[in-house]
Amino acid sequence: MIGLFTTLLLVLNLSTNFDEWLNRATAVMLAGALWLLGAGGQTAGTIVTSKIFSAEIITECTAIFPIMIFLAAVIAYPSGLKRKLWGIALGLPAILFVNLIRLVSLFYIGYWFPSVFETAHLLVWQSLIIFFAVLFWLIWVEVFVHRGQMQHA
Amino acid sequence: MRRSARKLLVFAAQFLLVFIVLTLAWPIFAPVYNVMTVGLANALFPLVEEPDVSWLKAEGNSVAIYVRDLAKGPLLFGYLDYPHSGLVVLLALFLTTPGLTWRRRFITIVSGLGLLVGIHAVSLIAKTRFEYVNAFGSELPIPDSVYLMYAWLGRLLVAVSLTAPFVVWALMTLRYWFPKPITSPIAPAPQPHKKHRAKEARP
Questions:
Q1: Within 13 Å of residue A60, how many CA atoms lie on the same side as its CB?
Q2: By CB distance 3.0 to 4.6 Å, which of A62, A111, B34, B161 could disulfide with B58?
């Protein structure tokens, strides 16, 4: 799993266009979510501006790290291809959604409680997003792998 | 013990609660932990630097990087903010993992924290070295391939510091989530006595 993870990192690093594309895509999603919430989100490249807060989206802001952890764990865990595909199909959108909640909440924290923004950004959410990736993997193992094996037995 | 999805959600809720409480208490215990990791990192610097010019100082939640200068004394180079964010998450994970006895939980917390101190001390050294690369890398004639490798290592370092508490937790508690299946051969059933077998054989 560690080998798979580092390989994924290397591939990500070599394809810097993907990196840039992902940052822009995350910025667009964040701006859309802020617009839906009435905060008037807009993007200029990887910079997201709104009525309440502005920030630049970098690689660490995207869901790429939790997604890679989740992917590596799903691929490495002994199970059938169909179950792995179910895990990926459901897990990736779930992680992207949690990451969007993370970014939107950070915008509001930056607006309402600027003094705790750094704590929320670096201490709370960076750990929580990885926790959710691990949690989704545990749920996948329980629901799609273990329960499926019990039904087949 | 196999966990159902519902029990996993209960675990998640308990984790979030404990995580929030520990985050609120973070300013109390983080400086102590910071002093421990910085002390270990300073002790390890001579192994990677010749002469060891870097010197770290714990300052609340941050770590100040000083560079020893023989003429001017230690010079402040920069800061590493929130370098130990994995501490809260590791404690919360250990405290809420279901199926652990309190004795076992205490042992895993102590040994897990010991492991995390080591990982954080090593990552402090690596982060300090990367601060130098970030500061002076563009001024040095480094080939693209070497720069790419540094960039990759930098990203790996971020990933390691983010995932370290989860890896430590998984290594120490995964067998409580996914116990080994029973692989020992089933003991053969006791053979009936010869007399009984003879009776059974009769029509």
A1: 16
A2: B34
Helices (H), B49-143: 86-96, 102-136
Residue of B5, B85, B156 with shortest CB distance to A123: B85
Residues of B in contact with A58 (CB under 8 A): none
Separation CA B176–CA A61 (nearest Å)? 33
Which parts of chain B sit beneath pLDDT 70? 1-3, 137-138, 140, 177-203
Mean pLDDT over each residue of chain B, to the nearest integer: 80
Count CB atoms within 10 A of the CB of residue A132.
Answer: 22
Distance between CA atoms of residues B95 and B116, nearest Å:
16
Distance (Å, whole) CA B137 – CA A72 = 32
Q: Is the dihedral of CA B175, B177, B178, B184 positive or negative?
A: positive
A9 touches chain B (CB under 8 A): yes
- What pLDDT shows up at residue A103? 96
Task: Note whether ipTM > 0.85 here.
Answer: no
Give me the phi and psi of B156, to 5 degrees please.
Answer: -65, -40
- d(CA A62, CA A82) in angstroms, rounded, equals 27
Show which of residues 42-81 on chain B sit within 8 Å of chain A, judged by CB atoms: 81
